[in-house]
Amino acid sequence: xxxxxxxxxxEAIAEAAILAGCRHYFGYPITPQTEVAAYMAKxxxxxxxxxxxxxxxxxxxxxxxxxxxxGKPAMTSSSSPGISLKCEGISYLAGADLPALIVNVQxxxxxxxxxxxxxxxxxxxxxGPGHGDFHVLVFAPASVQEMADLTGRALxxxxxxxxxxMLLADGTMGQMMEPVQLxxxxxxxxxxxxxxxxxxMQRTHNxxxxxxxxxxxxxxxNFDRFARYAKIEAEETLWEEYQMEDAEICIVACGITxxxxxxxxxxxxxEGIKVGMIRPITLWPFPKEPLRKAAGQVGSFLCVxxxxxxxxxxxxxxxxxxxxxxLCARAGGMIPTPDQVLEHIRTLAKGGK
Length: 353
Fold this sequence. Notes:
This protein is α/β, with parallel strands linked by helices. The protein has helices at residues 9-19, 34-43, 57-69, 80-95, 122-126, 144-161, 171-175, 215-235, 255-270, 288-295, 311-318, 338-349; strands spanning 4-8, 24-27, 50-53, 75-78, 100-106, 137-139, 164-170, 177-181, 239-242, 249-252, 275-280, 282-284, 300-305, 325-329.
């Protein structure tokens, strides 16, 4: 690891992507992620990389598609409304089995909404951002350090499994400054025998395409893709357990709400309330097994979210509704306070809702 430096979350993403070997960035400015593009604009030309501010988000994601087709790691970044515009291109990337990194530093919505932080793109990211049967890898960082660490991980797993990956951060994570240890420079992407690079008459032609008009062949491609997804669920799911050893209430939260919840847990434990937390780090694949295990231990769950209640559905599905799951939510760019989370914990401890 390199020395510790003070960085903004958005800048840590950009630097970590460069250190991981990404040399192609295409984007379009939008708050609160513009620092990613600004950092790339300064750094990429100095290291022989490519930075291009496209004429639109739609153009940017299709430029990523083009570079990915040649077997090069590529990325784009945006915030919620911009990601909506990229969804068709993300679906095309998935349909062509191409690796790419999409960074989404979320803001409030729907529509143009506001520029304050949000977690309201959970459904968009985890249900497949675009049309058709597909998933993208989804990572939810809860610190600037994780912004850096998960960027590199997302790039390399996208390459390994030939699929898009999304770093899904709330705006707070993008704008926050914290000490971060950046990783050493690496380039572990390896060969891309599937890429469109010219054959020199040494191999058969590769074709990158998401169109398959024969339904039997398209069905097989989808079955094969979902077999790969099952392997990812078995091997790549990430989560953190916090004070769950004796917990009777389990909080489920990610990003900034997980940090807020830690403070609430500390205060609740001072009052004798046994509460812990499971923090999903991958939102897809979602950490179902630790939640199922927790359902046999705790009396209730509390989801803390910055939306109207989205991750709560995955918690209920994971535990098969064995225990009640309550929601502590703020929306529109509002962040729940530790006191608000604590009040919900107290109510659950008393057996209420």
